[in-house]
Design brief:
Number of domains: 1
Largest sheet: 8 strands, mixed
CATH architecture: 3-Layer(aba) Sandwich
Distance between the termini: 40 Å
Number of helices: 14
CATH superfamily: Nicotinate-nucleotide-dimethylbenzimidazole phosphoribosyltransferase (CobT), large domain
CATH class: Alpha Beta
Strand order of the largest sheet: 1-8-7-6-5-2-3-4
Structural class: alpha/beta
Number of strands: 8
Strand content: 5-15%
Oligomer: single chain
Order of helices and strands: EHEHHEEHEHHHHEHEHHEHHH
Shape: globular
Length: 373
């Protein structure tokens, strides 16, 4: 059920080390006004919906299906929220979930740790976040990574940031990694041209477009210019946790960007870390997306092991999940990492995983129908 695409021996060693182990799941939620650009993301049918996507996903991840949610999951152009995948797994395996508000425009409606961050401005401004906020959020990430590393046998870190693949492209480009045309999106056909025009505008505004890896841009400054609050929190968490336990960055392009950011931070500030303890885990829909090049991107980032859960929703009874096979949604809210954890802990097959997701979705639909009537 799991394929290792890059740094195969290291990835397999990580999987063997945590076979049968129980994880903690930390989901870091943030916001960038980049996600409000028309057409930039499919994670919410309208820009207003996208303001609440993270709030709704967090509520569902924490509470599961219920008849009167404060913020119902947003209606997507096609598909269903990846929160169904993550929730089905954490519910079935009793995985502890910790929600972190790194910077959202609206408060979460379920128990969470508010890190005191800010929503990011659109990256086209070249001034996404105050530098002081970036440094503060990094320190918060370090502190919480150290704490979470002690709670279970390894740590999964997921994310929810609408528009986050575009800020990922900005970070990767700012670090001198030729990521244009390689990132993914929630669209069935990745909107590479739109993303690149947004990224180049922001990097030019911040006077960072001419930087390269050799020149070693301050990675904190780069996040402040064109990043989002999730990225720097997760970087801090992973660096601290990696000293004592395994870390799976649960996501695709966004977490590859975070891994590259971690490398840059460790090198720039000479920080101790155990990078071989950190892997990136996603879904096969991301890893094998023909409209991007996730594997090629991972190969450009020194040392990262890219893992993917080989999911298959083609036999689903629900069109919302069949849409995943047509390229919609693909990943989010740690879905791929949770799927890998289900295999490691209980050797779930793709069929078992689909059954768990469909059972949850059936309960969700039943409760929503009864509450509406």
């Amino acid at each position: 059920m799991i394929q290792v695409y890059t740094r195969v021996s290291s990835g397999n060693k990580w999987l063997q080390q945590y076979q049968g182990c129980s994880p903690t799941f930390a989901c870091v939620l943030g916001f960038t006004a980049t996600g409000l650009i028309p057409g930039i993301s499919a994670a919410g049918a309208t820009p207003q919906d996208r303001e609440y996507t993270a709030v709704a996903d967090a509520e569902f991840l924490y509470c599961g299906a219920r008849s009167h949610p404060k913020h119902p999951l947003p209606i997507l152009k096609a598909g269903a929220s990846p929160a169904f995948i993550s929730r089905a797994i954490v519910e079935s395996l009793a995985i502890p979930v910790h929600l972190f508000n790194a910077g959202l425009p609206h408060p979460l409606t379920v128990p969470n740790i508010d890190l005191g961050g800010l929503p990011a401005q659109c990256l086209t401004s070249g001034q996404a976040l105050p530098y002081s906020t970036v440094r503060y959020l990094f320190e918060q990430g370090l502190q919480w990574g150290e704490k979470l590393a002690k709670t279970q046998e390894y740590l999964i870190i997921g994310e929810c940031v609408v528009g986050g693949t575009t800020t990922a492209l900005a970070i990767l480009t700012g670090l001198g990694i030729k990521a244009v045309g390689k990132v993914n999106s929630s669209h069935p056909q990745c909107n590479h041209t739109q993303k690149w025009s947004v990224v180049t505008a922001g990097l030019q505004q911040a006077e960072l477009l001419s930087w390269s890896r050799i020149e070693r841009v301050d990675p904190m400054r780069l996040v402040a210019a064109v990043g989002d609050p999730m990225q720097i929190v997760v970087a801090g968490m992973a660096i601290a946790a990696s000293k004592t336990t395994g870390v799976m960055l649960a996501g695709g392009t966004q977490m590859l960007a975070v891994y590259a950011l971690i490398q840059a931070i460790v090198n720039y500030f000479s920080l101790p870390a155990q990078l071989e303890q950190i892997v990136v885990g996603t879904t096969s829909w991301v890893a094998e997306d023909s409209t991007g090049d996730t594997v090629g991107l991972a190969e450009l980032i020194d040392g990262v092991s890219l893992l993917a859960a080989k999911l298959n929703f083609s036999t689903s009874s629900y069109s919302s999940f069949c849409a995943y096979e047509r390229g919609y949604v693909k990943e989010g809210v740690g879905a791929g990492g949770c799927a890998i954890a289900a295999y490691l802990k209980q050797e779930w097959t793709p069929t078992q995983l689909l059954m768990a997701v469909e059972t949850l979705f059936s309960r969700y639909c039943h409760l929503r129908f009864n509450s509406a009537s």
